[in-house]
Amino acid sequence: MAEQKNQDLNQLLKIRRDKLAELQANGKDPFQITKFNQTHHSLEVKNLYEAHEAELLKDRTEPDVTGLDEEQAKEVQKNDYEERRSIMDASPLHVAIAGRMMFKRVMGKASFCNIQDLQGNIQVYVARDAIGADSYADFKKSDIGDIFGLEGFAFRTRTGEISIHAEKMTLLSKSLQILPEKFHGLTNTDMRYRQRYVDLIMNPEVRDTFIKRSHIISSIRRYLDGQGFLEVETPMLVSNAGGAAARPFETHFNALGEDFKLRISLELYLKRLIVGGLERVYEIGRVFRNEGLDTRHNPEFTLMELYQAYTDYNGMMDLTENLYRHVAQEVLGTTKIVYNGVEMDLGKPFERITMVDAVKKYAGVDWNEVETTEDAKKLADEHHVEYEAHHKKGDILSLFFEEFAEEHLIQPTFVTDHPIEISPLTKKKPENPEYVERFEFFMNGWEMANAYSELNDPIDQKERFKAQEELLAMGDEEANTTDEDFLNALEIGMPPTGGIGFGIDRMCMLLTDSAAIRDVLLFPTMKSQGAKKGETKAAKTAAAETKTEEKVAEKIDFSNVKIEPLFEEMVDFDTFSKSDFRAVKIKDCVAVPKSKKLLQFTLDDGTGTDRTILSGIHEYYEPEELIGKTAIAIVNLPPRKMMGIDSSGMLISAVHEEDGREGLNLLMVDDRIPAGAKLY
Hints:
Elements: H1 2-25, H2 42-56, H3 70-90, E1 94-106, E2 110-117, E3 120-127, H4 128-131, H5 133-140, E4 147-156, E5 162-173, H6 189-194, H7 196-202, H8 204-226, E6 230-231, E7 237-238, E8 250-253, E9 258-262, H9 267-275, E10 280-288, E11 300-309, H10 313-332, E12 336-339, E13 342-345, E14 351-354, H11 355-363, H12 373-382, H13 393-405, E15 413-419, E16 428-429, E17 432-443, E18 446-453, H14 458-473, H15 484-492, E19 497-503, H16 504-512, H17 537-546, E20 561-562, H18 573-577, E21 581-591, E22 599-604, E23 611-615, E24 630-634, E25 640-642, E26 645-647, E27 650-651, E28 653-658, E29 661-666, E30 668-669
Parallel strand pairs: 3-5, 6-10, 14-15
Antiparallel strand pairs: 1-2, 1-4, 2-3, 4-5, 7-9, 8-9, 10-11, 11-19, 12-13, 15-17, 16-17, 17-18, 18-19, 20-28, 21-22, 21-24, 22-23, 24-27, 24-30, 25-26, 28-29
Helix pairs in contact: 7-8, 8-10, 9-15, 11-13, 12-13, 14-15
């Protein structure tokens, strides 16, 4: 069946290419056209026609059909329509639009089609007598997806739809591929991200999201420019990737024979500009962090950082509050936004709470009573908060906040006064040097911005870089290294400064009600199709070379494999049969935030309702390589909360030991097995 489907598809594609060849043979090659004079878009045509109609027909009233039977009423309405049409046609609104044909209905000497452009779509009436017999014959042979330029005049059909009466049709580009079926569109998530161009064509809401994203960024720029900020650009290739706790991407610059990194932050260069006397600066640009993928993280993302001399983190709070209100009002027309059914009000004053008070409020732990790191670790053990050996008192406070408080911060909230251990570039609070003048801005339980009263003491900064170097030596790949030039800049002298970083992508997610960061990135990072986890360039090259050689059956060495001993205890059949094993289709898979091990699966179990299961297999698989696969799960286990998420069931994996290291393979089966098929 699949083979027949592929044959049918290939035949349809061949027909399209044959049509193109015929056009080219007849001197009508659409790819030779270089320009079309587009005067209007679809929405403009509709708005202009309505205004034109209102002016020309302002003295007309709706026909009175009171007391008439159905046939008489139809006749009166028909005559009224024809009179209105004659008035409008006497003063036609001529337009020229261009776009993709998404629908076509041929009816002999006249046809209808639907043209889609940037602003939407509009119906077009195409008559042989209007465009000519030859053009009409070509139009009848056209395909869904072809791009047309057309000239004509606007009119309203008898059913009330504003349309264009075509007087000239020009094929501007031939579509050689077939668009997804119109009623189902492009729904496969993985394919939507990989083929965003098709996604934009088939899903108008996606196009609206990215138009809105552009407006959001423009609005940010207008606001900051109005506040006296200068937009600047700083290097992406750096020798020292500092300013954030993140693992950088590394590359090699051949011309200089040096290793470089892609920037993880904008901070250190922007602060150099503050030193240089540019008192208010900002940059909106891409940064790169060699981390996992999930619904809120992409390895390259858009960050905005700004720095203002002679203010502190309180000034940054005021700026953030005003900026968010401005953007929401300008882009959405309201300061009340709704995300996933939850309303958040940007018009009210934003809540301000210290991290210590947030932990006290949501975890019931008063950190003011915690004196030592040992006390903090004891509390962590009691509350099942995971920590690492090198973590200090302040680090564990941050872990408590992440575990117990973050998810509750739905309305706009500033969380202030962070522990010094997690804030290497921030000024200490004079009254309590264990904490710093820093805030994180939260909405919907997400961190939306991070701001400091910037550290401008070069001696203190040097000591904090030293502490970061120690963490690096202990294996912390996210720790900063000492930036000697930045220290030199601070010694030149930096004024008191407030600084802030905004996650633009998360902001766009909230303002467009988008479920995942990939929904607001035109081209999100995806695993290459066909690539295996951990496959290097050298491995790929070697694999390509072996393709030229005779294919030999792969021999797998199991000599070093150790398996767990079989259970000695027997289980009766009735007990075993109570476990409900089902085939499940993996619809989506993402990394769980703040977890190095867990993946969150969205599964089709055949019931029609998505099932969520969490599995600790991120060490062995990246989420993208599992989407679309068929796996096996136990579906009648009671829900278990993991990282605050209910996991309903268990995916089955095969586990072994090899050379002292645990190996794991998720049990995946033939995709021909339907979702919900029960295992016996």
